[in-house]
Amino acid sequence: MDISGERHLDIRHDIFKKRIDSHGNVIEVRQDGIGAPKIERPLQRHGGRLEHNETYCGSCYGAEMTDDECCNSCEEVREAYRKRGWGLTNPELIDQCTREGFVQKVQEEAGEGCNIHGSLEVNKVAGNIHFAPGKSFHQPNAQLLDLLALQTESYNISHKINKLSFGDSIPGIVNPLDGVQWVQPVPNGVYQYFLKVVPTIYTNIRGYTIQSNQFSVTEHFKSSEEDHFRSLPGVFFYYDLSPIKVTFTEHHTPFLHFLTHICAIVGGNSSFFSRFPY
Questions:
Q1: 3-state helix, strand, coil in the chain (%, to 5)
Q2: Which domain holds residue 264?
Q3: Is residue 80 assigned to a domain?
Q4: d(CA 81, CA 137)
Q5: Is residue 108 part of a domain?
Q6: Residues in CB range of 220: below 8 A, 6 or more apart
């Protein structure tokens, strides 16, 4: 989401997310529907149960945009609610979510974390990238999450940043957030990084040029007890681009200049020792 108001939701990108357990091990295989109650005759949009050879058309529970719209899964019901700007606060009352064991799946994932890596393109204006639980939906002047009603007290935003950069790596420059780790001492809260991004051009001794960026950072944490405005829990990166560009250029020092510098250093030391003899 950038300063122009443009939001990038559900876009194609090169971001990958892995589920990990509380010990950091990747959870690679998990069967869907474990523990979910089985309902042989799901509820139809018109209110009755699915009969033999009847085409299934599930209800969207008031969020339908058209008269013939169907919601045949829990995700489709949630998506219909998001399009309306509504929050799905009681998924246990939704027939599709009950059949798929949505609430049970969320509860079984308690204590898990995730590993996120990849890259994406953003506009060259100020904006923010954030990691927050649930999926976003929007109301006027507000951004909400459709999982906040389930277990808001148990969110933990402890995190470690292995690497964060804006563009290609520049030799000799270490990004200030690489390897940074923060462990959350209290339940819930918002961790914010304010980044000042400086466009940078690096040219090596052979003339190869890298157009990238470097940045400085300021950190801030706001706990749920201090937050009277109820901000979204998560990790937020607010970035702003500097109007100044930095240029690094490598070049050889001529051998005669090198000898001149050596002579100047030796001459300066000789003068110093002559004034202050042992």
A1: 20, 25, 55
A2: 122-278
A3: no
A4: 8
A5: no
A6: 191, 192, 194
- Where helices occur in the chain by DSSP H, the ranges are 74-84, 95-100, 102-108, 148-151, 255-275
Given a cut of 50, the residues of the chain with pLDDT beneath it are 29-39, 139-142, 148-149, 272
Report the length, in residues, of the chain: 278
Annotate 71-91 with b (16+ C-beta within 10 A) or e (fewer): beebebbbbbbbeeebbbeeb
Phi, psi (rounded to 5 degrees) for 99:
-65, -40
The answer to whether 15 and 118 are in contact (CB under 8 A) is yes
Total domains in the chain come to 1
Report the pLDDT value the prediction gives residue 161, as an integer from 0 to 100: 94
Q: Does residue 41 form part of some domain?
A: no
Rounded Cα gap, residues 61 and 45, in angstroms: 8
**Is residue 213 within 8 Å of residue 175, measured between CB atoms?**
no
**277 falls within a domain:** yes
pLDDT of residue 270: 53
Q: Which two tokens stand for residue 184?
A: 């959350």
Between the CA of residue 198 and those of 179, 184, 215, what are the distances in Å? 21, 30, 6
